[in-house]
Write a structure and sequence with these properties.
Helices cover about 60% and strands about 15% of the residues. It has about 475 residues and is α+β, with helices and mostly antiparallel strands. The longest helix has about 40 residues. InterPro entries: Bact_Sigma-Reg, PPM-type-like_dom_sf, PPM-type_phosphatase-like_dom.
């Protein structure tokens, strides 16, 4: 080996060593953030347990959450008062395992593999694998560790379960592991590129202003709260194409910022079929967080209780959302419309944008106004919400949408409006449902040069 080659080898070795120390420092800082989030959010979700879970499990769940919080506090103290070192990924595994075990024990108490509470494990995987800037292999190992805990404890309890539900749960957990591992890989490359660029700048001391701007952009892209919240928001959206007697097509086009558009398609274990759509006021992380809270609350309510009407579900969900908004110290509210799907009719409640239904027999669009109250404003909606029965014939198509569609503006500041949307639905109703949704989106985006708000639509077609 020549002298120059040896010199390069020594320099590379020093850079790798320094980068490892730099990486350990970043992991330590974000580990403290992760533990603080756990300490705050784990007890906070007791409120959701109180409103959505069977009363006889309230004390047990409180014990689970209390014990988990104490263990996470101990982890925080260990991280806080130790120096960065190579063993720091172990703390990430421990935190993830502790919180995952708590959630898995709850799924065991709620019916094992049939319980929808497994969805909390996806939040754990996202929080740990996305916040911690560790190497991608740790995200993969941590993901399979969480999956093993879920399978192991529920298999040990040997409770009866529907194989289709287990396959569904494993599909979404596996997808979350793949998504978070991919994000971890990209983020690690960005962190290393940022560090090497910084080292090069220190050595060369050239183009300092431009390089600083590049570093700031890399940092903002890496740690930007908007991109993180947006990824979590879209990762939890359903991908169903059929539910009961209805064909489904749902599309969402978010803006660059995080929004509060909500839709969900729920096939409850008791056989009930539900569809919801709504919009949180404003944009940003707060709106996205409230949207996720609403999604979690409604799913938990319809999964755990049978034969509830849409108005009853919204009344219970509103109590949770109102309390959460008060805790956040904000003044957000949320439009919401919830449907229970029956073979020949829809049962609907809630206040949102007008409901459009293409009647196949008349070949005309019927517009049905919604009434009631928005969620998150008053404590009790019992006197202002009522259920409406909407007949559905074979071939009828329901169009649900958010205001990003109708309030799109062109260069002349003209609104796209409901009239254009009605004509668009009427003239394209014969298209396949997915193609119909794509046609609506392409028409709206061509009308609006620069998208200013999240755009969401859900189409339901009665197959007869």
């Amino acid at each position: 080996m020549t002298f120059r080659a040896k010199e390069h080898s020594i320099v590379d070795s020093k850079i790798n060593h320094d980068f490892e120390i730099y990486l350990q420092g970043i992991v330590r800082e974000w580990m403290q953030v992760l533990t603080m989030l756990c300490i705050v959010l784990i007890p906070f979700f007791l409120l959701l347990d109180y409103y959505t879970q069977p009363p006889h499990l309230h004390l047990r769940f409180a014990i689970y959450r209390g014990a988990t919080t104490v263990l996470v506090i101990i982890e925080y103290l260990l991280i806080r008062f130790t120096h960065p070192n190579r063993s720091y990924p172990v703390h990430g595994y421990i935190i993830s395992s502790i919180v995952s075990l708590m959630i898995v024990l709850m799924t065991v108490d709620l019916g094992g593999f049939n319980s929808s509470y497994y969805a909390g494990l996806m939040l754990v995987l996202m929080a740990v694998n996305i916040l911690l800037s560790w190497r991608p292999i740790h995200s993969v190992v941590n993901g399979f560790l969480t999956l093993s805990i879920y399978l192991g404890f529920n298999a040990w309890e040997n409770q009866p379960f529907d194989p289709r539900i287990l396959v569904n749960n494993l599909f979404f957990l596996g997808s979350t592991i793949i998504i978070t591992a991919a994000i971890s890989w990209v983020r690690f490359k960005l962190v290393r590129s940022e560090y090497l660029l910084r080292a090069e700048l220190v050595g060369a001391n050239q183009n300092l202003d431009k390089s600083r701007a590049d570093l700031l952009r890399a940092r903002d892209a890496l740690w930007g709260e908007m991109q993180l919240a947006k990824m979590i928001q879209t990762a939890l959206l359903p991908r169903r194409t059929n539910i009961g007697h209805y064909e489904v097509a749902a599309l969402m086009v978010p803006t660059d910022s995080v929004g509060g558009d909500y839709y969900d398609i729920i096939d409850a274990p008791n056989g009930e079929k539900w569809v919801g759509i709504g919009d949180v006021s404003g944009h940003g992380v707060e709106s996205g967080l409230i949207m996720m809270m609403a999604q979690t609350a409604i799913q938990a309510i319809v999964q755990q209780h049978a034969m509830l009407s849409p108005s009853e579900v919204l009344i219970e969900a509103n109590r949770v959302i109102k309390e959460n908004i008060a805790r956040l110290g904000t003044d957000r509210y949320m439009t919401m419309m919830l449907f229970r799907l029956e073979d020949d009719h829809l049962l609907v409640a809630g206040k949102h944008l007008d409901l459009m239904i293409y009647r196949a027999q008349e070949k005309k669009v019927e517009v049905i106004p919604t009434n009631g109250s928005w969620l998150g404003i008053v404590d009790d909606l019992g006197e202002v919400l009522e259920d409406h029965r909407i007949p559905m014939s074979p071939g009828d198509i329901v169009l649900l949408y958010t205001d990003g569609i109708t309030e799109a503006r062109n260069q002349n500041e003209d609104l796209f409006g409901e009239e254009r949307l009605m004509k668009l639905l009427e003239s394209n109703a014969k298209l396949p449902l997915r193609q119909l949704g794509t046609e609506i989106f392409s028409t709206v985006t061509a009308f609006e040069e620069i998208q200013s708000d999240d755009m969401t639509l859900v189409l339901l077609k009665n197959r007869g």
